[in-house]
Amino acid sequence: MKTISAIVIAKNEEKMIKDCLTSLSFCDEIIVIDNSSTDNTSSIVKKMNAKAFDFETDDFSKLRNFGLEKAHGDWVLYVDADERVPLKLKEEIESIIQEDLSLDAYKIKRKNFYFGNYEWPYIEKIERLFKKKSLNGWEGRLHESPIIDGRIGEAEYFLIHYTHENLSSMVGKTIEWSETEVKLRLEANHPKMMWWRFPRVMISAFINSYIVQGGWKVGTAGFVESIYQVFSIFITYAKLWEKQLKVKNEK
Description:
Layout: E1 4-10, H1 17-23, E2 29-34, H2 41-47, E3 51-54, H3 60-70, E4 75-80, E5 83-84, H4 87-99, E6 105-114, E7 118-119, E8 124-131, E9 135-139, E10 145-148, E11 152-163, H5 167-187, H6 197-212, H7 220-250
Helix pairs in contact: 5-7, 6-7
């Protein structure tokens, strides 16, 4: 029998982590990497009998690689705290790991739900299920990607993602992770931020969310989410402008 380890990255997810771990109960091992939570995430994880490890970093690849080091299963499944594995996907994963169809990793389609129950039209496809021996790690500090040795297939059923639950949590995460975004852009020698760059990136963000991804189909929630994407990109680039100005003044 092939075994599977679930790896969950969590930070201050006391409202989400229990349902996430419950949906992973079919796995032989559940590993939670707690990235410096200050709420009750840690105590909930312990009550759920998952294996908990503390690891503090703003580098998502390091978090995923740390989880990979702790996993003992033949296969590894990465799930975020605000994601759920429904019954049909659970059964498909169990079938995949036992049939072993000469594939080394699988993309899983993800349905995103905004503000609780508004289903987003755009369906993502993300690599989340791997033969452990075929996953050589992750790279990328914030937008991380797996390094896979072998062939990649695609699962039929969906992972459920409850993202952007409310505006307060959305703003908090934008403020937090924009710092890392700005560091990456500075390290890559991003061109000097001029006024005309702001409308360009903000308009592009709105078009992508509202038109390309079909946010207009979701009514008011789709409009709010798309405007939020504009706000989020503005915060990142305004911080970049601020940092560039500070560097210039220090010279």
